[in-house]
Amino acid sequence: MAKIEKGHPLPSHTKLKYDECHAKILLEKFFPEVYNDLQISDRPDLRDVVNSVGVEVTSAIPQGEQEALAIACTIPYLSKKGRERKITYLKAKGYDYSKYVMSHPPRGYAWTGSDYPDIEITFCKDFLSAVKAKIKNSIAASMRHCRGTICLYYLK
Question: How many whole angstroms separate alpha carbon 85 and alpha carbon 96?
Fold first, then answer.
């Protein structure tokens, strides 16, 4: 298991996934009457065996964007040569990094005018794709583990 150091980003290889931990904290904090003792597991991602509740968690942030964010978080802790190598890699992927700030290629997060844009060309496309993939890959396995599965579609 990777070593966790105070004041540093979490190591990239841990048994826990950030989105699942975040969903667990939010659900237990804001819906304690339903989710009071969620355990992190696999299929479903969160499970409350006492109340027979299972939750599948998915992220709408594309894998490439997640990778870029993870790399950017580690850059301040690298050697000068390591920083240069990671910044060059990010630039090749279309990201601009400067000290503690990273910008990514423009995306359709907002629109102007009175007409709504086609949902398939906005950031919602990533969310819809993530939901479709999660349902396709896990619904059968989730149903084997608990009586009722609630799918939580988590969008940052």
Answer: 13
This prediction's pTM: 0.54
Please say whether the beta carbons of 17 and 115 come within 8 A: no
CB within 8 A of 45, min separation 6: which ones?
17, 20, 23, 55, 56, 57
Residues of the chain where predicted confidence (pLDDT) is lower than 70: 1-2, 10, 12, 105-124, 137-156
Angle, CA 18 vertex, CA 15 and CA 20 arms, to 5°: 85
Main-chain phi, psi angles of 149, to 5 degrees: -110, 130
Give the C-alpha separation, 55 to 42, whole Å. 10
- For the record, the structure tokens of 136 come out as 């396709």
Distance CA 40, CA 56 (A): 10
